[in-house]
Amino acid sequence: MALLEVKDLGVEFGAFRAVDNVSLHVDAGEVLGIVGESGSGKSVTALALMGLIEEPGRVHAQHLRFDGRDLLAMPLKERRALLGKDIAMIFQDPMASLNPCFTVEFQLVETLRIHEGGSRKALRARALELLQQVEIPDAERRLSAYPHQLSGGMSQRVMVAMAIACNPRLLIADEPTTALDVTIQAQMLALLLRLQRERGMALVLITHDLGVVAEIAQRVLVMYAGQVVETSRVPDIFEAPRHPYTEALLSALPEHNIGQRRLRSMSGMVPGAFDRPSGCLLSPRCAYVQPRCRDERPALDGDVGMQARCFYPLAQVSA
Amino acid sequence: MSAVLNQTPPSPLAELWRDFRRNRGAMIGLVVIVILVLSALLADVIAPYSPKEQYTDAVLKPPSMQPIGGHVFLLGTDPVGRDLLSRLIHGTRLSLMIGLVSVVLSLSGGVVLGLLAGFFRGGTEFTIMRLMDIMLALPSLLLAVAVVAILGPGLTNAMYAIAIVMLPHFVRLTRAAVIGEMGKDYVSASRIAGAGTLRLMFDTVLPNCAAPLIVQATLGFSTAILDAAALGFLGLGAQPPTPEWGSMLASALEFIQSAWWVVTLPGLAILVSVLAFNLMGDGLRDALDPRLKK
Amino acid sequence: MFTFVLKRLALVAPTFLGITLLVFSLIRMIPGDPVEALSGERGMDPARYTRLIHEFGLDRPLPVQYGEYVWKAVHGDLGLSTVTHESVFREFIARFPATIELSLCAILIALLLGLPAGIIAAVKRNTVWDYSVMGASLTGFSMPIFWWGLLLILTFSVTLGWTPVSGRIAIQFDIPPVTGFMLIDSLLSSDKGAFKSAVSHLILPSIVLGTIPLAVIARMTRSSMLEVLREDYVRTARAKGASSVRIVGIHALRNALIPVITTVGLQVGTLLGGAILTETIFSWPGIGHWLVDAIGHRDYPAVQGGLLMSASVIIGVNLLVDVMYGVINPRIRHH
Fold this sequence. Notes:
The complex is a heterotrimer. Helices cover 33% and strands 22% of the residues of chain A. Chain A is built from twelve helices and 13 strands. In chain A, the strands form two sheets. Chain A has an eight-stranded mixed sheet with strand order 7-8-9-3-10-11-13-12, sandwiched between helices. In chain A, α5 (120-133) packs across α7. The two termini of chain A are 35 Å apart. Chain C has 14 helices and no strands. Chain C has helices spanning 2-29, 34-39, 46-55, 62-74, 88-123, 128-140, 145-159, 182-188, 194-229, 232-239, 244-282, 287-296, 300-328, 330-333. In chain C, 41% of the residues are buried. Chains in contact: A-B, A-C, B-C. Chains B and C meet through α5, α6, α9 and α11 of B and α1, α6, α7, α11 and α12 of C.
């Protein structure tokens, strides 16, 4: 049984469908990458899993199970007991995600206080330990610092420390490196990977950067305009993408454009709230579009673990 | 290309009206204001009697449908026998005029000063803003009273006083909006394209600051009406026999035990008008706030 | 911290000077001069007129007059009231505690009712609670406060007879002014029922004066709360599994209160303006009432001194608010 099982998740904001028919699963200890550009619905999916979608958003799914337990049917109090303890999340903008009025120590200790409790001294010691685990230098001094006194990379490390404080079994990282400098990004990913291995944590890494996925994920989910368009394993997806969108993403990478004068890109834009096509959502932009694509919406097709939402998936040709 | 469009996005004005309409309070405010404006314009026609006519045989009579000496005073009479209903209706005209004049004066002055401060920064800004700080350091009513003390009591002077008192708010608002806009790229683009300062000020930047100014102007109406009433109450605004709502309350304290309608009704008129403008101002603010779009 | 306070003080000085200039010019702009006002209807013989002009220093050039005025003001000499011939400064100080007492009670009521109301309205957004709080507060600051006072007097004093109509305490009590605050003084005195009388006299005026601040605080708290609840760090707290109480009470409140405190500070100006009207209606012997009388009697030294003192108080409170803001918001301090 998978640690996290999601079937037919949908999230609507009024008439706008941010997430449509998304299904995924995460096994204990594995790393799943979710890839997509802005507006693909990947962040909303993560928030829906955590139960952090607010009015006027509506979340519904066939099932949403963590460790066999139904997250949607669960009373609020039970769900809160899970958040921060068994399932944790870190967000994109670390500077905005920390409360400016409280010290690092206060915010770190809070997770422990909510779920485990303990004396002030004991909690402080654990906080110190956590900061050291996320490789923050001069940890002692950092404890009494305020968020605005930390750099972006430092803040994100504090966020990670907060997230792993209670030894969660699943960590969701929503674009953890996007807001950081390039030089820090590699460090952050290495840290996440190390922690994941050491603690046997499942990790869902949400990103728009395929290169990141290649490095640390075992399986990949590609999302476009709120739908899952391809699921695959790493490195298969890089060698033989089945969905035209995935192929386009790959062909836009600098590594695949050596010798070219321009990066290959896809024409057109992600559909917004007012211009969703009635056929396949990619049809206005797809290089392989056929008449059937414009009229019908394809469903996910293929063997388990290697599916694509396309009537004419690309042939298995090695790059 | 045959991407089928499911919806067309509405035009900005239509969107504004739609958001505004959704706010029931704002719609009520709008309706009330329309009624007030109509009353003001048609006061001579719809008021049953002259607001200045004293009916000596009907002094301090309570509201009633029973005629006294051949006249029906639906809302009663005041201490010198004037029909309260007619006075209230004519008072609408006065209050709206006070609001209009004060706000227009204050807005124009405030926008100009705010533009100067926001555009030219440096010494100009410092002087203007220090001046505004000084004006804001005195309680607004006190400042208004002081100004009226200089100019002499009366309705027009009250309007000037109120305009002066509201000025710093418009200046601050405009300046803040201008400074916010100045940093944006479209201003630099205009400048590079060769737009002169005046054109830049009025054509480019000002329209984008319009939203908060519109809201503040609407709310300024309510401030003006309240301030005018306060001045009238203190005897410094409209003078008798002018039927201004505040001055009608001036001598009300004496009659609080004997004639509740003299005390209650003019105040109620003030409350309703001010409430209407506040509701509409709030509605505009909510409708114009881009963040609430989602 | 100390440098922060000093810097704020330094900014205040030019504003203060500006106020003295403003007040000085305002009074000088009034048609006619104070000596003329003294002469009343009977007129004055020219010799006495010239002598008085000289006594008041009105024959010296304006900048000199201004300089003298500022110098004296800084030393607490604001001249003599033309009505009572007492030091204006002393008159102000004598009446000031009454206004402070009233204002403090008003702000207390405003905070005690306004803060919770705003928080509830924000947490229960778009429900009946939210609408009633917002409706009530909107009505609150759309009312002319003198009318509201009259209405309350009509209901509670005249019709129900629960509260007195005017003054700070029933006339039969003669309380020695130890602190100037009737609540404290009446407690200190051994007169039975004095404290109760003082409280009952304070209730209605405080409610009337506190109504607008209450409305403003409720609205401000609500909108501030709503904004803060949308912030990323609140989402982080939720992701940690924090309860609603914890999120609202600890994470949100501290951040949400920051703009509210500034608002409360800014309300001091409104309070002083409102005090004028409230004190007039309730015959409350504070500075608002005194100022209005002074204007009516053309007591220019009193008007001038009163304006200056009021403005100074407001500036002082704003300074205090600035400093408190620095205490609560660590970011400001560290710059």
